[in-house]
Amino acid sequence: MRMNDFIQDYLSDQDEGLKSLLTFFLNLVMQYEMEQQAGAARYQRTESRKAHRNGSKPRTLLTKLGKLVLEKPEFREKPFETAVFEKYSRVEQALINTILESYIQGVSTRKIRHILEKLGNISISAETVSHLGKALDEKVYEFLNRPIEQPIIYLIVDAVYVKVRRQSRYINQAVLIIAGVREDGCREILGVQIADCEKEGFWNLLFEDLKKRGLCGVQLVISDGHKGIQNAVKKSFLGASWQMCQVHFLRAVLSKIPKKRQSEVTTLIKSFLNGNEDQLSDAAVKLEQMGFCQAADTVELFMFDVGNYRDFPKVHWKRIRTTNMVERVNAEIKRRTKVIGAFPSRESLMRLIGSILIDTNEEWVTGIKYLDMSELLDKQILDKESIIRSSVDSPFVLIADL
Predict the structure, then answer these.
(1) Does the domain made of 142-245+322-366 have the CATH classification 3.30.420.10?
(2) What is the DSSP code string of 154-174?
(3) Residue 212 clears pLDDT 60, i.e. is over it
(4) Model confidence, pTM
């Protein structure tokens, strides 16, 4: 197909045109990979040739545009390897592995039985499942323990809740996703933890582990309103601020309001939310006058931490006053875990979520920058110059402070 044909397809049907173009591109990538692995181009005669072509086989790839049918090359002498299907395989293998593990351990929900019926009559041992999971575990472990190589300015923490089997009962576990915006403006997945509780000691250990891997430069931590994380931020990141996610803040207030009055209170809170502490204090007074004393207490509890984002460049405000950046990742995790229902073990849960996060991180660090950090970095340079100038008049400023 010529490029003009792709353009005509795109103009007549954009979705199908993009699918055709992506199919063409990915097939072209595999042709290039084939030449590299064979050591020679098509029909080329050379002593460096390592393998010979043996046709191709159709292979399905699921993408955001839908299902693509690609032509995967084959060699006579050895298997052909391609990076095109690596991302697809990692998450799908983790999902299939969890389904099989669930089946073996008796967590075969109705959905899992239907999936197995579609796969046909299968007979698989626990040893086989363990072998399938081992390679995935190694990739996930390597990803979650890699060095953090750039300063992280904004640290975002959010949780998704999943049901996990523990011995003969099922418990809800909080899966905490830790992400950040780097000094260069790109997003990065920093870690994931499966938590039994969210007390201060847990957060201290989590933050210390991240710091051992190289986490530094944190200026703002955005999360929900758990007291443990607030205290841990004060101890672990001196000089940083904690930002109460405004979405979680509004939910916390509305949880104290009868449903029939929530719309009215939402309008009230939003009208004061982006103001200063005095305005939020006025909102608390109005709530108390309306008879919602518990909601007023909630506003007063968080009013000094819900607006810390305003100390940073205004172009960043929309993206640093909530945990929405991680909420989108959580939505993908929920979509993927929905088919399982209840996980047979913490290990299988970490295997699947880790595989999803590896893919997300690849998109983030290779995609466009999330924030323009130039204004923030310029301000920091000016602040340092101001400290240096003031040190001339104050002989007590320590070099370490600079």
Answers:
(1) yes
(2) EEEEEEEEEEEEETTEEEEEE
(3) yes
(4) 0.69
